């Protein structure tokens, strides 16, 4: 029986908006992780059947099927195809799902799944421009206002009774956990240091800021609502970055002399209210647990994307998971959220953590524009 296994994973450091990585074209960010994953695994890129690449703002430098352009720019054989996926923030997690499905179905033997986003060079929302992507019939169903993720986060905070203080505490914890992981060297094996056009070698994530206080966060103005609780300090950072996972089957891994790290155990999707937009990780997790036959207490690590602090906190309240197992190395509030690359970044971090700690099962989920969520259960091998 065919399966889908991860045999290698790598990511760039995550750069802040207009920070260290902003001088790099998104194709070149992608090239870096593709070349790094080939070097780390020792594979001949010619064996790769396809590159499935997440990218959200597919305009300008990120258009013309960056999933195809990147392996060509990496010097890989022209026979290696590539496709670009947009499931909003979950684009590169969806790339993993598509890769796993293709491997299990026999469409692929070796595939790279990942993604990229340079939010400095291609700002969020720029693909939409002045056009209306919704149309009259969508608006007749959901109202004339364009769905706003920040207002969705405010709705979640109100529904689950999450105070600004609780959101800020969670955000400070994200930075402290990420700082502790960095100090302990837990990100070193995940990150492929990258050289910028001016010769600077970037080795670490730029967004981690330990030592914050509730008093400092309290001084920040709410962004989406005058009397709201969501602000820049308890939201994900706008970032640049890329990540990739090399995937194959157990049988093909043996043939190529590769060692599987983790198996894609269960992969599901869920949809929810597109106006609130950010609650779908809850039903996606419930669906993944039901389909897998696993209990929540059998999962040893969770990556729930910190798009806004209310998202993982509402998820935690509904699922009853162990808070200590949630985003144990920090999340997007501290590390950053390069939209199309985030799913692969989370998975790289999750698989690395599972391997480091000997955790058998891990679960990843993330909210997505349009009110969707992917959920993936991985099994350590």
Could you explain the architecture of this structure?
Helix content is 35%, strand content 19%. It contains 12 helices and 12 strands. The protein is of the alpha+beta class and 381 residues long. A hairpin with a 3-residue loop joins strand 11 (361-368) and strand 12 (372-380). The protein is globular, with a radius of gyration of 19 Å. Strands 1, 2, 3, 4, 5, 8, 9, 10, 11 and 12 form a 10-stranded mixed β-sheet that branches. Strands 6-7 form a two-stranded antiparallel sheet. The model has no long low-confidence stretch (mean pLDDT 97). It has helices spanning 26-41, 66-73, 91-105, 135-142, 149-159, 164-183, 214-218, 250-256, 281-292, 310-319, 332-335, 339-357; strands at residues 5-11, 15-16, 50-54, 81-85, 110-118, 194-195, 201-202, 239-248, 262-271, 301-304, 361-368, 372-380.
The structural class is alpha+beta
User: Rg to the nearest angstrom?
Assistant: 19 Å
- Silhouette: globular
Oligomeric category: single chain
Low-pLDDT stretches: none
Q: Helicity range of the residues? A: 25-40%
Summarize the structure.
Helix content is 35%, strand content 19%.
């Amino acid at each position: 029986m065919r399966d889908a296994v991860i045999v290698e994973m790598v990511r760039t450091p995550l750069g802040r908006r207009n920070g260290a990585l902003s001088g790099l074209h998104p194709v070149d960010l992608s090239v870096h992780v593709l070349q790094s994953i080939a070097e780390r695994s020792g594979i001949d890129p010619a064996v790769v059947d396809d590159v499935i690449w997440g990218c959200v703002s597919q305009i300008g430098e990120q258009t013309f099927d960056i999933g195809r352009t990147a392996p060509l720019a990496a010097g890989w054989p022209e026979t290696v195809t590539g496709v670009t996926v947009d499931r909003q923030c979950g684009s590169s997690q969806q790339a993993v799902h598509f890769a796993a499905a293709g491997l299990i179905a026999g469409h692929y033997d070796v595939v790279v799944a990942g993604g990229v986003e340079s939010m400095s060079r291609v700002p969020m929302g720029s693909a939409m421009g002045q056009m209306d992507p919704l149309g009259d019939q969508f608006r007749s169903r959901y109202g004339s206002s364009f769905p706003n993720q920040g207002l969705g986060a405010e709705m979640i905070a109100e529904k689950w009774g999450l105070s600004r203080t609780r959101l800020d505490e969670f955000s400070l914890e994200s930075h402290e956990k990420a700082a502790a992981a960095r100090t302990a060297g837990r990100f070193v094996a995940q990150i492929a240091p990258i050289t910028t056009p001016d010769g600077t070698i970037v080795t670490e994530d730029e967004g981690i800021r330990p030592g914050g206080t509730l008093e400092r966060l309290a001084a920040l103005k709410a962004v989406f609502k005058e009397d709201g609780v969501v602000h820049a300090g308890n939201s994900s950072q706008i970032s640049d970055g890329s990540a990739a996972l090399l995937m194959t089957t157990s049988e093909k891994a043996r043939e190529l002399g590769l060692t599987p790290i983790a198996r894609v155990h269960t992969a599901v999707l869920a949809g929810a209210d597109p106006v609130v937009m950010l609650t779908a990780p809850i039903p996606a997790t419930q669906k993944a647990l039901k389909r897998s036959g696993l209990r929540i207490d059998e999962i040893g690590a969770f990556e729930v994307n910190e798009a806004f602090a209310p998202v993982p906190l509402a998820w935690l309240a509904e699922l009853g998971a162990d808070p200590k197992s949630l985003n144990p190395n920090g999340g997007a509030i501290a590390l950053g959220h390069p939209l199309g690359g985030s799913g692969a970044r989370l998975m790289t971090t999750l698989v690395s953590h599972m391997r480091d700690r000997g955790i058998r099962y891990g679960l990843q989920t993330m909210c997505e524009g349009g009110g969707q969520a992917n959920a993936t259960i991985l099994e350590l091998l």
